[in-house]
Every structure is written in structure tokens, then in C-alpha cells.
Amino acid sequence: MEKRTLNIWGVSIASLVVLMIVTPRIPQPQAYHDFADQRNFFGIPNTLDVVSNVPFLIAGIIGLVVCYRGNYFRLSLQGELLAWTIFYISMAAVGLGSGYYHLQPNDPRLVWDRVPMSVALASVLAIFIIERVDEKKGTMSIIPLIMAGLGSILYWRIFRDVRLYILFQLLSCLAIAAMAILLPPMYTHSIYWLWAGVFFLIGKIGELADQQIYDLTRQVIGGHTLKHLGLAMVSVFTSIMLAKRSVALKRQSVLDSLRISKSAVKTE
């Protein structure tokens, strides 16, 4: 392993240790389980929050099947097939785990929601590393990233502290966004990552504004239901991207594109 990589890991771990020492423990708020839409249809508790997980299952299964159907997605890089396989399996598992959780929301059941979602996030981070940083490093990062996500959940359940879980989610999202903007994509049609990000953001807004959205829609649909539908669309857009993309003849980051556009405007 390169000395620079070791230094980065050393600084990161030291920073994490210091952060955990100087910040207070954050328990899982029990109010989190009190969702706005608790209606019961056809004998299913919290019906819409449960059935809105079906798109996860459908999109995940379709993506997984297409991954192995004559290599329709043309996955050729080292680790690509593994990372995308883990992603689609995880998204399908979210449909099952989250549905199970919403039947009777509580901390033990929340584990089955967060485990597949964390694994899916870890796989996307690894995919970005494979495609935009280095194939070998990205492939080698798949298992460590997944273990980090699972470790954050294990830490929460053992110590009743969600700090590591929050950090993993936040830092993973920031790293993906940074790579999407600063590093040139290896493939075309990367615009679909942007659409996936938009719907991911919509899902997060729905999660935070659950009650407000429920009231705003006159109790038609809650924000948490919209969260499920928004996050499930991530699988849809990534599948469309994989089906359409090809190796980019000219690699250019979003930041470089903006600079070129800005320069072109100035010269006019």
C-alpha cells in the first residue's frame, strides 16, 4: 500500500477517534418511529409506508437480472460486476427490510432497514472509486466500505449511539458528490447520476418533512412514503444509465465543463 494512502487512513482514523471523544453520544430518537401516516388499509399497518417499498424490490431484482443477462450493461472493469451486483441485491433487500420495519416500527426492526441501505450506499461509493479514481483501489474498497457501514450499525445497536452511522452516511454522500463534480467520468450518460442524486435528495427531504408533507397534501401521502418512492428511483436511473452508456472518448469533469462554458461566455 502506498505511503500516501496509509497517511490518509491514519489521519482519518485519528480524526474519527478525536471526534468520538469530544462529541456527546447521540441515542436513536424514539420519535423517529412515530410516522405521520399511520393509516391501516386491508389490514396492513402503516399501509403506504409498507407498500411503497415494493418499487425497491422490483427495481433491484430487474437490475440484478439484467446485470447477468448477456452482460447487457457491458460491465467490464475489475470489480464493476461485483459492486453493481451488491448494489442491486441491497436495493431489493431494502424493499423487504424496510417493509418489515414499517409493519411495526422500533429499533430492532430498524436494523433491517438500515443494513441494506448502508450496503447499497457503500457499493455506490466503491463504484465511483472504480470508475473515477482507480480500478484496483475501488475493487479493494468494496468489502472495507461495506464493513464500515455495517460496523456503524453494530456500534449503534451495542452502544445506543448513532454518531458513527450518521458519519458514515454523511461522509459517503459527500465523497460521492465530490467525485461526481471534480473527477471526470469514464463513461457517457453520467447525467443520470445527477437525476439519481436529485431523487435521493427528494427522498431525504421527504424523510425530514414527513409530517409537513402529510399535512400539505391534506393527509393523502406522507413524506416518508415519498422518501421510499424517491430513493427507489435511484435504481431506475442507474439502470437506464448502464443500458445507455459507453466508454467516453473525452473525459471531462463537471467542474471542467463549467469552466469551459464560463470561458466561452466571456469570449463572446
UniProtKB/TrEMBL annotation:
Cofactor(s) listed: Zn(2+)
GO terms for MF: hydrolase activity, acting on carbon-nitrogen (but not peptide) bonds, in linear amides; metal ion binding
UniProt keywords, alphabetically: Hydrolase, Membrane, Metal-binding, Transmembrane, Transmembrane helix, Zinc
Membrane topology: Multi-pass membrane protein
Compartment list: Membrane
Keyword Metal-binding: yes
GO cellular component, one term: membrane
Segments traversing the membrane: 7-26, 50-69, 81-103, 140-158, 164-183, 190-206, 226-243
Binding-site residues, Zn(2+): H102
Gene Ontology biological process terms from the UniProt entry: ceramide metabolic process
InterPro entries noted in UniProt: ACER (IPR008901)
Major site of localization recorded for this protein: membrane
Family according to the record: Belongs to the alkaline ceramidase family.
Name of the protein in question: Uncharacterized protein LOC104587065
Gene name per UniProt: LOC104587065
